[in-house]
Fold Flagellar biosynthesis protein FlhF.
Amino acid sequence: MRIHSFTAPSMNQAMRAVRERLGDDAIILSSQQKNGKVEVTAAIDEIAEVGVGDTSGPGLPDWETNWSNDWAEPAGVTAPLVNGAAEPAAEKTDPATRKLIDDLVAVLAFHGIPSRLGERLGRLALAAGADEATIALAAAFDERFRFKPLQLPARRPILFVGPSGSGKTLTLAKIATQMALAGTAPEIVTTDVSRPGAMAQLAGFTRILDLPLSKADGPEALAERIAGASAPLLIDSAGVDPYSPDQMTATARLAVAADAEIVLVLAAGFDPEEMADQAQAFAKIGASRLIVTRADASRRLGGIVCAAAGSGLALSHICHAPSAAHGLSTLNPVKLARLLIRDPLQPLQFTDLSEAAR
């Protein structure tokens, strides 16, 4: 997918520019008023733009092709050799591209993204042909990661899993609140029967929403509870050590007993490679999606990127407020790019996340 940004005095003129440049197959990602003008961000599939059988496009550098193979192999020297050394890339790069490269490097480094992953994302971003860092990085995320928000009400029970303190219970509460307000009240089941106060924490908000709450102390009890359910089920679980085979096996057995989709919940702000390791561990027991919490209390969010890259989990939602009634947003490539490129010294403006989806 190639992403472009168009600015014009009016929406009609901006849309005309989109059609002239990208054709009728273009997808509008977002639109906004900026400095008295209209800025429209649009995308088009690479194949639709350059034709079937031509995936490189006219004039693109060689390193912009075969990204899957490029990711799997160590990076090599691509610049020509001059007296036995690589020719400096800056001598062949126009100022706008150099600024884009500098911006991308600064963002990826600030968020602690490891150099090899950062290099691959940077090259994907440059391949998008965008002039602005947010759009370029969004294109890289769109190419490299999967984004798949939960479809509610879900057909299968949802089992929320993760390490202790990751925010599973609050995340469940946020999703249950959204479902209840939309007219589909879920049933809540907790398997976290040993932690002091776990049941009381859930009971506090289920009473407000008048939602049924029950507990199950193991796979057999959970299977019985599922069999008698008459509404969509959300299942809370105890925090587990992702490096404990016994605890992970017990979690997997809960999912099997409930025939549930496993959704991993991780808190933002931790070491990126540690988050990647944890996400990999939960992916091995069948987790399919990742929800990230505590984004409002974290400035460095490279762990989100590393967790998705290391596990293959689909990025689903992000939690950015402590209230059960607010602060749950779906994730897409543009939203994630905006999160990373924002000024880290300024508070997160999650109204921007909603606008990015329009």
Q: What stands out?
A: The two ends are 18 Å apart (CA to CA). The longest strand covers residues 27-34. The CA atoms of residues 47 and 258 lie 42 Å apart.
